[in-house]
Design brief:
The complex is a heterodimer of chains A (about 290) and B (about 280).
Chain A lengths: L1 H8 L2 H8 L3 H29 L3 H19 L4 H5 L1 H32 L10 H14 L2 H12 L3 H25 L3 H9 L4 H35 L7 H10 L3 H33 L1
Helix pairs in contact in A: 2-3, 6-7, 6-9, 6-11, 7-9, 8-9, 9-11, 10-11, 11-12, 11-13, 12-13
Chain B lengths: L1 H4 L10 H12 L7 E10 L2 E11 L4 E5 L6 H8 L7 E6 L2 E2 L5 H9 L1 E4 L11 H6 L8 H5 L5 H13 L15 H13 L5 E5 L7 H17 L4 E4 L3 H7 L2 E6 L2 E6 L6 H7 L6
Helix pairs in contact in B: 7-8, 8-9
The chains are: A mainly alpha (about 290), B alpha/beta (about 280).
Chain lengths: ~290, ~280
């Protein structure tokens, strides 16, 4: 190991560090960094070994994938995704993501206000509570929320919408909070010093500073929610995912192929639309 | 100039009775100071920022707080309206100890304490006029302020004040379009529209060049005299302090080392205050 470190200390910067009187510190830092990288690599090797990953199977898949795609999934059954039922489910997915984002953002704004360390109206009770809600919404994956809610309230759009709303609260809540916490504190001090109430401080001192970031985050959130919405149906929550599950279970591979293509298409469209919108808004309000 | 002094008072609570009370306070200013700070201490982590600071501020005072950087000047000013929470002592503003004030009472007191900042602290994306009007937030209901529906009298008052600080032509510009000196003038107007009984001024000139700094200090002094507001002003520039202020407090490492008139500030006293700093 010392042989490996030796070349580093030959580096001109090492000499400069020594001259300015912080050599021990710098050497320790390098050893630590080197050890960290080495440790990560060793642990990766250990994990692969522990999981008994069969690389031969992986190699075999590479050979088969072309054949499987060509014989089972090609050509995709485009008629299946052009059927009125399926097109209707695309619309449902869109509406589900839209409603969930709107409701989720409505909850995320007050939660972010309460959770932010610089503007929270109450440090003792509301801030920990809001932080807990946001973290709880984040730490459970949206698919798990869906499974949970489907088992609680049955199939349909409602559990999907609620699950996506939780996702939105966790996602936008965290980003909104971070945007609030990074604002310049000067105007906040100034507005507080006029005797303004906490809500006035939020709206007058903070909102002008975060409106661009928040608008961007809101659109980005919708984009992420829409991506998740294409799959929640797989667990019984309606929309495009429902058809995906149906086709997979029937082993109707050419229908599956068409559905996957349609999901990729709508996600790409939503991503382009959201990027375009964010850019336009950043320009318009800057 | 006349137009300002003849404007009716805006605050709803300024009744003839409270006016009389205020006038009697002014008359007995020697016995009833506007601000009475006693044994103020502030601690940050394990470091003591302010140690046992006491002083009073009368209605006609213009007090400068001087001292090397890190002496606690800014903390002292911010402890008075509790932007920083003091750890011990009393801050009596018009007889009320703000350290004991509940949030509502603290807000009511803050309405009457104008504050001017080193970095101006305007809301960049709002217009100059809207920035001045934020000084009325404490007097405006939350719903009205969210819709920016300020009282007509407030808007007229803001326009008059903007004229007085020489910014009539810039009312509808965004605040970040102005120069440093102009921005500080907006800050002064914002503080004055509060109808303050006390002005806290935190390094008003440090972000400005020397000529503009003198203009801004002159304007603050002129306004303070005209509206009869006492001023507590942090300033590291001793020359500006002696030129514009009626009394000087010297801080060093959180301890009050000097208090007196500018002509009492001898070179020896200055050395004492700035002892820690390599001059």
């Amino acid at each position: 190991m010392s042989a490996l470190i030796a070349p580093f200390s030959e580096h001109p910067r090492a000499h400069r560090g020594a001259r300015f009187g912080a050599p021990a510190n710098a050497l320790w830092l390098r050893v630590l960094r080197f050890g960290g990288v080495l440790g990560t690599l060793l642990f990766t090797a250990y994990a692969i070994d522990y999981l008994d990953i069969d690389l031969d199977r992986l190699a075999g898949m590479l050979g088969r994938i072309g054949v499987v795609l060509a014989t089972r999934y090609y050509p995709p059954n485009i008629e299946h995704v052009l059927a009125p039922d399926y097109l209707h489910s695309v619309l449902e997915t869109l509406q589900m993501s839209y409603a969930a984002t709107a409701l989720g953002l409505l909850c995320a704004v007050p939660l972010a206000w309460c959770a932010s360390s610089n503007l929270t109206p109450d440090r003792l009770f509301l801030q920990p509570l809001a932080r807990f809600i946001i973290i709880a919404a984040r730490s459970v994956h949206e698919m798990i929320w869906t499974i949970l809610l489907v088992s609680l309230i049955g199939f349909g759009m409602l559990p999907g919408t609620i699950a996506l709303m939780f996702f939105c609260i966790g996602f936008a809540g965290k980003l909104f909070t971070e945007a609030l916490e990074s604002i310049s504190p000067g105007p906040v001090d100034a507005i507080r010093s006029t005797g303004a109430r906490k809500l006035q401080v939020l709206f007058v001192a903070a909102w002008p500073q975060v409106q661009v970031a928040w608008t961007g985050i809101a659109i980005y959130t919708w984009d992420a929610v829409f991506r998740a919405a294409t799959v929640v149906g797989f667990f019984g929550a309606g929309g495009m995912g429902w058809y995906l599950r149906e086709s997979t279970q029937l082993i109707a591979s050419r229908d599956v192929a068409a559905i996957l293509l349609s999901i990729i298409l709508v996600v790409v469209i939503s991503e382009i639309a959201s990027a375009w919108l964010r850019k336009r808004i950043a320009h318009a309000v800057a | 100039m006349d137009s300002v002094s003849t404007i009716e008072p805006l605050s709803p609570e300024v009744t003839p009775a409270s006016m009389a009370q205020a006038e009697s306070l002014l008359a007995n200013s020697a016995s009833a100071p506007v601000l009475d700070v006693r044994h103020l201490c502030a601690v940050y982590g394990k470091r003591s920022i302010l140690r046992d600071i006491s002083f009073t501020l009368n209605a006609d005072d213009f007090v400068a707080v001087i001292g090397p950087s890190g002496a606690g000047k800014s903390t002292l000013i911010r402890c008075i309206n509790r932007l920083v929470e003091p750890n011990a002592g009393e801050v009596r503003f018009l007889g009320e100890d703000l350290r004991q004030s509940r949030p509502r009472a603290l807000r009511a007191a803050r309405r009457r304490i104008g504050m001017i900042f080193q970095e101006f602290n305007l809301v960049d994306r709002l217009s100059v006029l809207d920035n001045v009007l934020t000084g009325r937030l404490g007097y405006t209901s939350t719903v009205r302020s969210l819709a920016r529906l300020y009282a007509r009298a407030d808007i007229e008052r803001a326009l008059v004040l903007l004229e007085r600080v020489g910014l009539s032509d810039h009312c509808h510009k965004r605040a970040d379009r102005l120069s440093g000196g102009q921005r500080q003038r907006v800050g002064i107007a914002r503080a004055l529209i509060q109808e303050p009984r006390l002005l806290l001024v935190d390094e008003p000139t440090s972000s400005l060049d020397p000529k503009v700094a003198r203009e801004v200090m002159g304007l603050i002094r002129q306004m303070a005299e005209e509206f009869q507001v006492p001023v507590l002003c942090n300033i590291h520039d001793v020359d500006l302090a002696t030129r514009f202020c009626s009394r000087i407090i010297g801080l060093q490492d959180g301890v009050k080392r000097f208090e007196g008139r500018p002509d009492e500030l001898s070179p020896a006293a200055l050395r004492d205050i700035y002892a820690m700093e390599v001059l």
